[in-house]
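Reader question, answered in our methods column.
A reader sent in the components of a multi-part assembly and asked whether the whole thing could be modeled at once rather than chain by chain. We filled in our standard form and ran it. Here is what they sent:
COMPLEX SIZE: two components
ENTRIES:
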Amino acid sequence: METGQFLQYLVTGVTMGSIYALVGLGFTIIFSVTGIINFAQGEFVMLGGMLSFILFDSFGLPMGLTVVLSIAAAALLGILLYLLGIRSARKASPVSLIVITIGASIFVRGVAAEIWTKDPVRPPYFTGSESLSWAGAYIQPQVLWIIGTALVAMIVLHVFFSYTTLGKALRACAISRQAAGLVGIDARAMALIAFGLAAGLGAIGGVVMAPHTTVSYESGVMLGLKGFVAAAIGGFKSHTTAFFGGLLVGIIEALTVAINWGPFRSEYADAVALIALLVILVIRSRSLSAGERAS
Amino acid sequence: MRKWFSLLLVVVILAAAIPLMGCGSEKEAYKVGAIFAQTGTNSSLGTPEAQTVEMMVQRINDAGGIDGHKLEVIVYDTKSLSDECVILTNRLIDQDGVLAIIGPSSTGESLAIKGIVDAAEVPLVSCAAGAQIVTEAPTKWVFKTPQSDVLAVQEMYKYMKSKGWTQIAILTDSGGYGKGGKAALESEAATYGMNIIAKETFDPAGTDMTAQLTNIKNTGAQAFVCWTTSQGAAVVAKNRADLNMTMPLVCSHGVANTTFITNSGAAANGVVFPAGKLLVADQLDDTDPQKDVLLTYKEDFEEAYPGKTADTFGGHAYDALNMVVEALDEVGADKAKIRDYIESEITDWAGTGGIFNITPTDHMGLTEGCFIMVEVVNGEWTWLKTS
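And here is the structure of the entire assembly that came back:
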């Protein structure tokens, strides 16, 4: 395989991988603070993308403003999901809460299809449509936005969790909610922040992704699954691992298409990512359940 | 408050008028069932189909119904799922007691319910492309209005041959539509001297096809065919532009709606595909026997749904319901007679899909010439007139 060709596959993999990474980060943020796997995570990506299109197309707002508004709106919806769905049922077991998030995701999809459109939509590119050439591979400027945004989001999150009081409080909840409560950290407020943060992150992914891939009311399903795989690689605890897990899933997919031999063919690209999930779950099942006991 | 009162008054008057209206038309309504994929992956097909039916029912009943009978079409959404489609078909037959069924939108769904309508002896006019719907048994009660994949492939290959493109790559989706297209592309290749040097597939809901296109780019094919519906094709067209590919792209008739152009933007320019004549209805010669029906449908649809553009998928439903309505008008509420009428009397019948000649051995009744080649130029469909 030539270098240019290989780079092309790699770029494709990293592009999709960056989005999976953002979804994966959303999973880990909520899980580490609340112990809930939020299956509506993919829907926030869809909401980010759809909202940015609707605001741009129907209200004619400038792209910069639509981006900010879409992310803020999705974050608010994330907080609403927590307040209406999770907090009001806080006595329920984690499994019931997870089922609530599945219900919420179906609800959000249905509402999106009903009030907006069932057709896929595509907001305009942030900057230019001419591809850049790099060592024999072509790169769409939007792809740079996607990869760059994911990187920046990861770095900002890292700084936030390591160096700010709020970030440390969130981490304290992740380590032990009881102990965090004893030192005066309001676990419920932290859960609310986690939901808002995760939803906002998902929406950031959706906003930068939509001009490149198009987005429809159903987009969240597959993205949610891939993000789930990414988060599972890090056992739903480590943000860094979830981030690189996302990139890995994207690269595995692209290379599956590239190999084009035996079971590694384009029609199985999605399946390969999900098989990777099975393998990870089997390997990590022990550490996952150990983590649950601790929290 | 007065506003509410007057509104209430209107409602009361209307309610009082209903029994009166009932007395006026003693004849029982004709019930027809319609099952379309209004949501799910085939929603770009099912939505215009359902809208078309709604518009037609309104028009027919405003004009006094069919021979004095009101037309009632019960429309269900299959969500693009075959099992849902089976349940809804049974409901139409057993509970709603319909005289005929039109739809479903996709080949897979149509194949799933063929056996049911055959056993219940209810005529079905499918709106899906797959040839096997009317070639594989049971076919006695099954008809279809869209042109088959093979006809599209023939038109496509003729065009490609005229351009001198014989070394080709194909990119098909892994759903029912893509599989049908792949089979037709493979079976017709030899006849037209096409050499398929690479085959790629992808998930119809896929969001990035750059990797597949990189494979194709490296094969050195002269052109490539992408067989999928608008959603996937828009991604392919866009990724092709992203990769600065100059290899010509030929799509299937599944992209014949505005979704494809709006979602691929400038990347749609230069894409060529076979399509029913509806797309270029106003450019047709006045002698074209389809021109009248095409323009009527287009104008009626666009008047009923301002801002929407009529597309060939809605046209399939238009043809299907028109056949059933004509049969009802001629033979009345008798399922077997409706079937017989469609089989024997739909000859030289101008529809939006072509000139239909349905016979006992051909329950589609379309032949070569029902497709034209269209190129997207500056975001508009342009007819590539040949010969």
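What stands out: The first strand of chain B starts at residue 30 and ends at 36. Chain B is about 45% helix and 15% strand.
Send us your own complexes using the same form.
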